[in-house]
Amino acid sequence: xxxxxxxxxxxxxxxxxxxxxxxxxxxxxxxxxxxxxxxxxxxxxxxxxxxxxxxxxxxxxxxxx
Length: 65
Description:
Largest sheet: none
Order of helices and strands: HH
Distance between the termini: 106 Å
Radius of gyration: 36 Å
Number of helices: 2
Structural class: mainly alpha
Strand content: under 5%
């Protein structure tokens, strides 16, 4: 009887390990691929301040009204 219990435990352990490895294999297939985009560069433009003397004529007309 001890030999039967030992063999049964070994068989159950083997089945559990096989099922776990199959589950990990299927899980790896179903995971989405995530690729990091290192080529992204933010385009930022610097805003230059204008002085009052450099205002175009349209802006001067608006400023006076």
